[in-house]
Amino acid sequence: MQYADSARTRRYTVVAHHNPVEVTLDIRRSEFIGMIRRVESEDEARAWIDDVRGVHHAATHVVPAFLLGPDRDVQRSSDDGEPSGTAGMPMLQALTNFRAVHSGTEYADLSDVCAIVVRYFGGVKLGAGGLVRAYSDTVVATLQQTPLLLRQRMLLAALHAPHGEAGRVENELRSAQFSVLGTDYASAQATITVGLEDVDDALEQFNARLASMTAGELVAEAVGTQWQDLPR
């Protein structure tokens, strides 16, 4: 299996949906409930953490950690009353070190993710090392049950076509496995927007392919970028 450092500005791994994934581990009579979900902002992460605290108000600890952004610029965690450094930070490290596999290649680039571990104390103290392992192992066990996918920065290319030709061109682009993001039928002409991998020669290669498909009649222009989830 290959290992790759993900191109930070082009793609990274995310949770496939916003529905929480939950796994429970029993560790020396304490119950550790791991939860993972996708979040798009710090406000969304904190709102979910508050919701979980409300549901598990009788828990001994509700420990959160989350990562945000393609470059994981935002990293937050809390020990929530556990000894300093034994809960939140190990969870954060479990998130940053987790290796997702895409097409046989491993990527340690998970982001836009929030993990929560709820602990119900069972009467046996674990010690600092035991706590670190328990919180880290709970996050990893939950991640192993979490569907993941790649999120990629796409170069947006727009091409203009007569209304009568737009449907045919769009179908041919889809058949050629291009990502057609939408078609806008204005009064004068239709504008088809295609998402391309954001690499240096992407537009040039696309226009060469487009020329062969339309006998040189259509040319696309770059109109921006956007992040797009890739199909699993």
Shape: elongated
- Name the CATH superfamily classification of the largest domain: Impact, N-terminal domain
Looking at the overall shape, the CATH architecture of the largest domain is 2-Layer Sandwich
Oligomer: single chain
Order of helices and strands: EEEEHEEHEEEHEHEEHE
Number of strands: 13
The share of residues in helices is 25-40%
Count of spatially separate domains: 2
Uncertain residue segments: 1-8
- The CATH topology of the largest domain is given as Ribosomal Protein S5, domain 2
Largest sheet report: 5 strands, antiparallel
Average pLDDT figure: 92
The level-1 CATH class of the largest domain: Alpha Beta
Please count the helical segments.
Answer: 5
Distance between the termini: 19 Å
Radius of gyration over all CA atoms, rounded: 23 Å
The proportion of residues in beta strands is: 35-45%
What class would the helix/strand composition place it in?
alpha+beta
